[in-house]
Amino acid sequence: MAVAGAGLSGLCLAQYLVRAGVDVHVFERDPGPFVRQQGYRIILDRFGLEALRESLPRPLYRLALTTGDEPGGQLRFTDSRLRAAFTITFKDEPRASRQVDRLTLRSILMAGLEGRIHYGKAALGVESGGPAGLRLRCADGTAVGASVVVGADGVGSALRAQLMPDAGPANTSMAGVYGRSPLWRNGASVIPEVLRTSGVLAIADQPGRAFFFTCMRFGESPPEAFARVAPGSYAPTGDDYVMWGLLLRQEEVPLGIRGNLLALRELAARMSADFHPLVRRLVETAELDATVLNLFATGRRPQRWAVPRATMMGDAVHVMPPFGAHGGNTALRDAALLGRRLVEAWEGGTPVEEAIADYQNEMVPYAFKAVDTAAGLMRRLTGGPAAPHWVLTRLLPRLHRVTVPEA
Q: For the domain 2-398, what is the CATH superfamily, name and number?
């Protein structure tokens, strides 16, 4: 079996299938495992946690929990000067969610898959034929035989046009410049105590611009935890950090800026110049090599699956704007569901085509409910009618005390 893409969903599926005794290999276009940023903090909800619990060996699942932390209990909406407008308090049951570092989670998902992840193998297409039934074609000219092919190669999937010919993602008007900045400076937290357990969305006076930030605090140090549970696996440093994102309109992003890290940080600094000094300091102290640009898109529901023994997962199917923390959890949920359906088919002697069709019929409703939710939140928080925006950025903050002093 062949999986295209070594992101969260592809690796999670591989873990599930290896535990069930299935011979699965993952083909990744990057030349190595950690050559680019693939996100920062992720909040695992009950679906994400359950997918990991079902897919990972027990020690690796505990490693994900112990290196993470309880997520912040609040999301604060403020104006650009961090004056509070209103706050949402989450009432999840204890241990029902967990914040984890995405790089650390990806390292955990790689553990035990040595020899099964093949780098420099960009998937190009799927062909019928060969002893296994299908062949996965790669950009380097090689072709791999497989009984089932799964596309988990992200929003820029090369397989999507063939496997889901009517479901290319739709662009949106919004983009994000993301960064990561050290949480500790001279022994003190750069985030005030009042915001220690909060995510903050600071909305600018100008519609279509906002700044989000939140802390990632590790539980047990990843190097120490990996040495105990998964010796020999790559362990990130585990330094606490602040993840942030400047939200702006795509028309404000200069052409050709993607991949130019210095220009991206300069763009973030320029667009956040009127925000609170804390916001400006986060941008100024950002780790340059952790700065990325994301042009937001929304997946479209597939109406036709063109290859019966091939399917798709994660952002390759249902990319969504980063509002509501649904993307990573939905991808992990896909992986566990597909793994379960495939194993049930192989163990029960039922056709794999039926198992894949069952997965697709179950996945599309919950995945595109999440897409619709995320897109709706994006529209409400970054655009919309002038009156609600005025209430959010001008009226409500004047009814509250200043959240963070300017000094």
A: FAD/NAD(P)-binding domain (3.50.50.60)
